């Protein structure tokens, strides 16, 4: 009609990474009316990986996404966990939820199953580009466009260059987007003194939804099987200072693993053979990503790329789901304006991240006990725990630190899905925008301050604070 303004162009967003954080963000952004593209270096969706926990606030996010029932259907359904000696004799057996510090609706799922659920929920609405990666990012002004906006010129390793309003790095610990926008990862990655490897292996132990742990000084070995998977999984963790190797060189990683476990008994010879033959071999350090800020201009980081808590925390996947919810919600609430949205996203997430980083530092020490007396104490506590009249209290204490970290954020209510995002400078229409019921900016600041104070208390407590003495937290999968 004459005199009717043309509708604003939807804000275009490029997300690097199609694991968990990227597709979760794509889900929310699409529902808010953004035009989303996801680029992934792998040639297809990565369906491998180890088991990951969905706890606390992440359960609430999964429910809001409508995927909680799918997660529950794909549960690992782990029944028990046990420590064994070098001959494979069980020293102590406990319910798997105690080992995993899970309560209530918390659940556990294979990382590949969660990735598949998220991909299937977004594949019809989001552009996925597999087998490619970002090569460069260049901030640009749209001279002559008339909208006064800005964007990011993106070149790819294979595809033709494209321009996007916003770019999100959801590409993990070794993030390409972080390197291009912020600098080398050595500036931001803190090594926690250990390495971890995970891989598929034949279920020669006949495990049925059970995980077995064997510990020697400075090393931890785990084998487990989950519901619906005829194979088993192996997990090896060892203490070591920062090692020099290419994180894409599998042969070098296998050599480091074999050196670390040379002469160790139980199932190690079988497991090392399985690691060499596995198609899903994984190896990396237990490392934190710590950054002063997660955004620069129109580029922002999400999940492990921004604040990896390491597999030691068991919270990486949950933090990715929560972060995606918060980032998308803040972009919607700000009308797509990045400066406002990114600042609010960081304010909401900072305290949550700090509490989980403190958790990771503590558990990284516990995962690879250095002395035999520590291991003997651990085994003794596990052996007598089932007979203690106060065993339920001990179990709650074991879970306390993890649960506190899993709920160290209060989720806001954001604009109702279906809101249409306008231009990335925030000048587009904001139809359907609403403030969370009863929530003010002052209330938000008060909540963030409270979470930061909780984080400070956790940091001050330091490694070994809280928990039940001698009762271990096994290595969680992030």
Largest sheet: 7 strands, mixed
What spatial order of strands do you see in the largest sheet?
Answer: 5-4-13-14-15-12-16
What is the count of DSSP helices, taking H or I runs of 4+ residues? 14
Uncertain segments of ≥5 residues (pLDDT<50)? 1-7, 426-472
Radius of gyration: 23 Å
Helical percentage? 25-40%
Overall mean confidence score, pLDDT: 85
Describe the global form. globular
What is the β-strand count? 18
SS-based structural class?
alpha/beta
Strand content: 15-25%
Q: Termini separation (Å)?
A: 54 Å
In short:
The chain has 478 residues and is α/β, with parallel strands linked by helices.
Reconstruct the topology from this structure:
Layout: E1 12-16, H1 21-31, E2 35-40, E3 51-54, H2 57-65, H3 68-73, E4 80-84, E5 90-95, H4 96-99, E6 107-110, H5 111-122, E7 127-130, E8 134-141, E9 150-156, E10 162-164, E11 166-169, H6 176-182, E12 189-201, E13 210-216, E14 219-224, E15 232-239, H7 250-260, H8 268-277, E16 282-289, E17 295-296, E18 299-301, H9 304-307, H10 316-333, H11 338-367, H12 372-384, H13 391-406, H14 441-461
Parallel strand pairs: 1-2, 1-11, 2-7, 4-13, 11-18
Antiparallel strand pairs: 3-6, 4-5, 8-9, 9-10, 12-15, 12-16, 13-14, 14-15, 17-18
